[in-house]
């Protein structure tokens, strides 16, 4: 209605007068507004439809006019009680064109008929300013029996909205793929949707009135009941609460995620708790799978960091178990083939898997010591199964699963045993994995992983992880085996290239040390040597091949062999280095040719680059070397140097000095001559030959290292007050190495020290004889007298015979004066000097020859013989071993007769 009817405005007093039916005539009795029942209902209502549709009511008197007007009617129809009471409802609400049927309807109502219809009314809140109300009119009588009417009005748009909301709610509730449920305030189920009913296997109508205890195990039901009570009391929602249970008729455990929230009526009163249940069993399983993958990846990452940190087989096995227990399993052990541990070069395991193994590691998180778990038993204790102790060597029975795993290199799974077998026999184990340890297609051992009862049994992912862990450990163990093999070979090579630990020399006290720069391989290019020369002379050699490792060691071995060969030719030191230079230039070229390497080696020696780009500089071998020859009779030492650090000399009572030996060019450069210098060494003098690794490193320069070496040698032979002390040469070596920085690991270190103790005059017999036949007899006499004075009567006959042969040859084939010299040290040496240049040559005489047997006789009766050139001719010598009192020397008569 666009306009209010005339007379709608009423005085305020009239409003109050309408309350009494006496003053206003017959009217519908007032309805009680409050009662004990209504009070109880108001205190804890379940909610009502009227909270949503907002029902309005008013009453008509016997005269057809409005007698009572509710506050809801004022809200709905927009008229106050003052404006509505006493008015004709048709004129007040109905549009003019519809008032005639409206009056008829009111008349019918007053005659006692009910009426329901849609009545348009003025509604300022509506879009077009007009609304439609559904009015239900019920006839009524007052206390006097006069007829009136009670009217109830509802806005049609509110009803339509309610219908739409109900339809939408029903669609969401019934068609959702998620499980919806509703609990009342008494925590009993009011309603569930079809999805929820399918999950628990009951019809929808059978859930009404159920409690959580009817659906879930007691523990889970307690949790859900407490959560429902908390949400109902606090009004705070709860999301993603995990619930575990079983679907009726299925033994599988299911897992749900439940979210709860409190429901309210239109007036805000709590009416229950609604919930949403989602089956997350698959998601949980996927999460567990993902967690397992992450755990395995973390375990593999840890294994990569912790397994194989050393090249020791037992340590690697223990590292494997440290990673596996308890992160992956509860018990574990590692068995390795005994042949592998003993360094056998043959394949470690027999084809049938019955080779001997040794238990190298065991770890347990559930026991204090080894237990028999998996398929473990020694071949000789099948009937009496006992745990295998760490370190024990054993075999597996041929038909056992362990032997089968070793034969086939395939993982085997051993299920847990019955508990009646006893704890000591592994009765509490869930399952065991027997994993062959395979490296480079070779089985090196067997790893066993076990889980105790209560743990999850091994799955496919666990098997793959166990194989990966065992493979990583197997590769590390095989690397350790290969390293040990190569290390042993390197040691054999290095020891074969170096002189024995306690070399001996006439007139010299020798001590030596070798420290490889690479402790892993213990091979390098540094070397030293002590070579005995004729006449009780000694050659001292120290060299350094540039580079490291096996290639440098091989080059060093070739040079050392060449040095020994050249030294036995009794060449001068400078000549030896010149020949070595030629050899070094041919080491890195095909066929030993040194022409192509000459330019490259010279450039490298001068710090430049090779002119020929086609030359492979990596094949150019350069070396430094110092070569010295000491004569204990003259106490003179001749030095020649090829680019090597100078020797250090410490004379008695003097400080350590660097010897001024011409440096020369390194071996392999070629084309440069070598110089030599001769120095007289007094008795007690200390001579030190070394390589640059002893005095040079990144931390200090070469000059600083040389100063430190001199200082160490000074303090080694002096006490605190400056007095000389008689320290052994071994102690001096140890003092030098401990004082200097010898642990830098940058280069090999070789140290050769010699203390001079020349031959005394009593140990030398030296005579000069004329070039005449009588000198032969005189030589025999002199030799006899000298040997008798030395107490070597057993050697007199042999010495006389051999001396006469050498002197005779000197008279026949030599020139000039003859010199006879006898030297006594660890052996007896006889030398015959003459001025001839023709070297004697041993030959086999025929039966008819009258001569040619002298040198054969010398060779038969002596321990060694030879000849060497001298600046004034040649020297022929022989050597006899001193008698030890137990064995006699060769019989000269028998030797002489053997020539025919």
From TrEMBL:
InterPro entries cross-referenced by the UniProt entry: Bact_Sigma-Reg, GAF, GAF-like_dom_sf, HATPase_C_sf, HATPase_dom, PAS, PAS-like_dom_sf, PAS_4
Record flagged with keyword Hydrolase: yes
Region (Disordered): 1-27
Annotated coiled-coil segments of the chain: none
UniProt cross-references to SMART domains, sorted A to Z: GAF, PAS, PP2C_SIG
Signal peptide limits: none
Domain PAS, residue spans: 58-113
Keyword entries, A-Z: Hydrolase
Statement: the UniProt record of this protein carries the keyword Hydrolase: yes
Residue ranges, compositional bias (Low complexity): 15-27
PANTHER family for the chain: STAGE II SPORULATION PROTEIN E, STAGE II SPORULATION PROTEIN E-RELATED
Protein name (Swiss-Prot/TrEMBL): SpoIIE family protein phosphatase
Organism: Streptomyces luomodiensis
């Amino acid at each position: 209605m666009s306009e209010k009817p005339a007379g709608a405005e009423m005085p305020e007093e009239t409003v109050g007068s309408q309350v009494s039916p006496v003053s206003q005539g017959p009217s519908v009795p007032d309805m009680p507004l409050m009662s004990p029942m209504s009070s109880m209902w108001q205190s804890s209502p379940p909610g009502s439809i009227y909270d949503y549709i907002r029902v309005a009511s008013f009453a008509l008197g016997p005269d057809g006019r409005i007698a009572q007007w509710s506050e809801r009617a004022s809200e709905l129809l927009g008229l106050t009680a003052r404006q509505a009471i006493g008015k004709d409802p048709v004129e007040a609400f109905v549009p003019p064109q519809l008032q005639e049927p409206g009056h008829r309807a009111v008349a019918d109502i007053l005659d006692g008929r009910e009426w329901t219809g849609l009545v348009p009314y003025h509604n300022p809140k509506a879009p077009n300013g007009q609304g439609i109300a559904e009015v239900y009119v019920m006839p009524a009588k007052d206390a006097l029996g006069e007829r009136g009417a009670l009217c109830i009005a509802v806005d049609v748009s509110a009803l339509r909205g309610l219908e739409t909301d109900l339809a939408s709610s029903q669609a969401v509730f019934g068609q959702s793929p998620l499980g919806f449920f509703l609990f009342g305030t008494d925590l009993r189920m009011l309603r569930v949707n079809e999805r929820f009913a399918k999950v628990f296997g009951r019809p929808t109508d059978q859930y009404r009135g159920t409690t959580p205890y009817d659906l879930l195990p007691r523990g889970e039901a307690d949790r859900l009941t407490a959560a429902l009570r908390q949400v109902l009391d606090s009004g705070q929602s709860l999301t993603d609460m995990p619930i575990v249970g079983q679907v009726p008729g299925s033994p599988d455990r299911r897992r749900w995620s439940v979210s709860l929230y409190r429901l309210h009526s239109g007036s805000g009163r709590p009416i229950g708790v609604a919930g949403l249940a989602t089956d997350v069993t698959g998601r949980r399983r996927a999460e567990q799978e993902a967690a397992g993958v992450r755990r395995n990846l973390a375990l593999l990452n840890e294994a990569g960091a912790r397994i194989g940190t050393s090249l020791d087989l037992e340590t690697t096995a223990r590292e494997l178990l440290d990673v596996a227990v308890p992160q992956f399993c509860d018990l574990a052990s590692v068995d390795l083939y005994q042949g592998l541990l003993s360094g056998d070069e043959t394949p470690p395991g027999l084809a049938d898997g019955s080779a001997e193994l040794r238990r190298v590691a065991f770890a347990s998180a559930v026991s204090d010591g080894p237990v028999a778990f998996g398929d473990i038993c020694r071949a000789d204790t099948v009937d009496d199964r006992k745990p295998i102790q760490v370190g024990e060597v054993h075999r597996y029975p041929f038909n056992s699963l362990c032997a089968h795993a070793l034969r086939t290199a395939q993982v085997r799974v051993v299920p847990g045993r019955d508990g009646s077998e006893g704890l000591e026999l592994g009765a509490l184990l869930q399952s065991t994995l027997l994993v062959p340890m395979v490296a480079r297609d070779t089985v090196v051992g067997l790893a066993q992983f076990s889980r105790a009862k209560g743990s999850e049994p091994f799955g496919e992912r666990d098997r793959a992880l166990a194989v990966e862990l065992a493979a990583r450990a197997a590769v590390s163990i095989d690397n350790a085996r290969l390293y040990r093999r190569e290390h042993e070979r390197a040691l054999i090579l290095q020891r074969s290239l170096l002189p024995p630990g306690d070399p001996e020399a006439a007139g010299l006290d020798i001590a030596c040390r070798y420290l490889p720069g690479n402790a892993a391989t213990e091979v390098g290019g540094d070397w030293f040597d002590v070579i005995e020369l004729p006449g009780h002379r000694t050659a001292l050699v120290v060299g350094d091949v540039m580079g490291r490792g096996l290639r440098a060691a091989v080059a060093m071995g070739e040079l050392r062999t060449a040095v020994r060969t050249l030294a036995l030719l009794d060449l001068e030191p400078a000549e030896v280095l010149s020949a070595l230079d030629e050899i070094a230039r041919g080491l890195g070229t095909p066929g030993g040719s040194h022409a192509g390497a000459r330019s490259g080696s010279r450039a490298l020696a001068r710090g430049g680059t090779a002119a020929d780009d086609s030359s492979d500089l990596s094949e150019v071998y350069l070396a430094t070397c110092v070569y010295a020859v000491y004569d204990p009779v003259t106490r003179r030492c001749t030095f020649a140097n090829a680019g090597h650090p100078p020797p250090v000399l410490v004379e008695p009572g003097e400080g350590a000095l660097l010897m001024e030996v011409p440096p020369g060019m390194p071996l392999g450069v070629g084309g440069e001559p070598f110089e030599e210098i001769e120095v007289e060494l007094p008795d007690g003098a200390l001579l030190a030959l070394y390589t640059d690794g002893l005095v040079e490193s990144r931390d200090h320069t070469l000059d600083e290292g040389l100063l430190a070496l001199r200082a160490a040698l000074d303090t080694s032979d002096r006490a605190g007050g400056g007095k000389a002390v008689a320290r052994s040469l071994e102690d001096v070596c140890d003092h030098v190495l401990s004082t200097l920085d010898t642990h830098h690991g940058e280069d090999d270190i070789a140290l050769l020290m010699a203390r001079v103790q020349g031959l005394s005059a009593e140990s030398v017999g030296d005579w000069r004889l004329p070039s005449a036949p009588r000198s032969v007899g005189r030589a025999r006499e002199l030799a006899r007298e000298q040997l008798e004075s030395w107490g070597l009567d057993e050697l007199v006959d042999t010495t006389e015979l051999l001396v006469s042969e050498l002197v005779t040859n000197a008279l026949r084939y030599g020139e000039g004066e003859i010199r006879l010299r006898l030297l006594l040290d660890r052996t007896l040496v006889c030398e015959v000097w003459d001025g001839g240049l023709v070297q004697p040559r041993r030959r086999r005489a025929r039966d008819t020859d009258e001569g040619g047997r002298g040198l054969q006789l010398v060779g038969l009766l002596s321990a060694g013989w030879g000849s060497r050139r001298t600046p004034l001719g040649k020297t022929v010598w022989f050597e006899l071993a001193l008698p030890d009192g137990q064995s006699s020397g060769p019989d000269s008569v028998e030797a002489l007769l053997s020539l025919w």
